[in-house]
Automatic annotation (TrEMBL):
This is Peptidase M19. It comes from Duganella rivi. GO terms for molecular function: metallodipeptidase activity. InterPro entries: Metal_Hydrolase, Pept_M19, TAT_signal. It comes from the Bacteria. Pfam families: Peptidase_M19. Residues 1-25 form the signal peptide.
Length: 379
């Protein structure tokens, strides 16, 4: 089955132009300051390459010269890269273990451009060196099997973020698409304790509401929701309630807002919707706990018609597998058409500034809020 990372990324400049959307000015003063930019869930692969190339370790996971150039031009300093088992066939543990080894080897081969992030200091180091920090993360904890001690081996392999569930259920509890909304199981509590002990960020994206609340209460360390939206603005299962958002903030954690279809109901979301979700999250959580987790990549798509055909097939596959969420549609692209490409972070900064947000708050949203939360766990 094709992975979600295959399709859920960026729009082409030509595609944006065909929509008749106005170009947005960048924020030169902030750009000149070189603010820290961290994508709490994203990628940098070149979406224009074939799916096989992007998914293969032998082809550098689709991170070619263009991908690196675009990512650096965007100002991105670090990103949380999903690896390992998310859904589908195969043994979750074996798949994930192989991915950890492959990504460690890849980052080592590309050490002139990439740096494996094990600490908050590594992100600052990547910024200073002109490299991009790669935070290895999981979007499912199914690979733990029945042994929570596996967390330690993944931690030693450089994994720094582990999401408890994907959309479905696993042995830790229920994901966002499971009607029973089962909370954190006894085994799930063991895993959370091991994540705390091994200084790995607990990620509650994709989780059902009850497991989110349970895990936030059970964790002895700050937790994150790396990529989500606000249920109060768009009543969809992938978005989080104010109660969930507030509890994460009260625990000293972080909430990343995504650039995804779930920002609006029944229509294509745009940059204005992202701003609305960021502002709502700030009102609920406070400005020290909100940032971005795009769930996308940086390079734009060159061939939009081909992309749209691929998106249609992706949605069909996900629905057939029972892992699709309301809001995923073949006629709604999983990105923001007016906020894409290598300038997307600068455009976001400019939009926030025009809304009256201070430079210091914008810098928090772009990266320092994530860094603070992560440092509280990784140190």
């Amino acid at each position: 089955m094709t992975s979600r990372r295959t399709f859920l990324h960026s729009a082409a400049a030509a595609g944006v132009a065909s929509l008749g959307l106005p170009a947005l000015a960048a924020a030169p003063s902030l750009r000149d300051k070189r603010p820290l930019i961290i994508d709490a869930l994203g990628s940098i692969d070149n979406i224009n390459l074939s799916a096989a190339l992007r998914d293969s370790a032998a082809s550098d996971f689709g991170i070619d010269a263009r991908a690196l150039a675009d990512a650096k031009a965007s100002g991105l300093n670090a990103f949380n890269m999903t690896i390992g088992h998310v859904f589908g066939d195969g043994d979750p543990y074996e798949k994930t273990l192989a991915d950890v080894h492959a990504w460690n080897a890849f980052i080592q081969r590309k050490s002139a451009d990439l740096l494996l992030v094990r600490s908050a200091a590594d992100i600052k180091r990547a910024q200073a060196d002109g490299r991009i920090g790669v935070i290895l993360g999981f979007q499912n904890a199914a690979m733990m099997g029945k042994d929570a001690r596996r967390v330690e081996s993944f931690a030693k392999g450089g994994v720094r973020v582990i999401q408890l569930t994907y959309n479905g259920a696993n042995q830790l509890g229920d994901g966002s698409m499971v009607p029973t909304n089962k909370g954190l199981t006894p085994f799930g509590r063991e895993v959370v304790a091991e994540l705390n002990r091994n200084r790995i960020l607990v990620d509650l994206s994709h989780s059902g509401e009850q497991i989110c609340l349970d895990a936030a209460a059970a964790s002895k360390a700050p937790i994150i929701i790396s990529h989500t939206g606000c249920r109060a603005l768009a009543d969809l299962p992938r978005n989080k309630t104010d109660k969930e958002l507030r509890l994460v903030a009260e625990k000293g954690g972080f909430v990343g807002i995504y650039f995804m279809p779930f920002l609006a109901v029944g229509r294509q979301p745009m940059a204005a919707d992202l701003i609305a979700h960021i502002e709502h999250a700030i009102n609920v959580c406070g400005e020290d706990h909100v940032g971005i987790g795009t769930d996308g990549t940086v390079p734009q798509i060159d061939d939009m018609p081909t992309y749209m055909k691929g998106l249609e097939e992706e949605v069909r596959q996900r629905r057939a597998a029972g892992i699709s969420a309301p809001g995923e549609r073949p006629d709604i692209v999983p990105f923001l058409p007016d906020l894409m490409g290598r300038d997307k972070f600068w455009k976001l900064a400019d939009l926030l500034a025009k809304r009256g947000h201070s430079s210091s708050r914008i810098e928090k949203i772009l990266g320092t809020n994530f860094l603070r939360a992560a440092d509280g766990v990784w140190s």
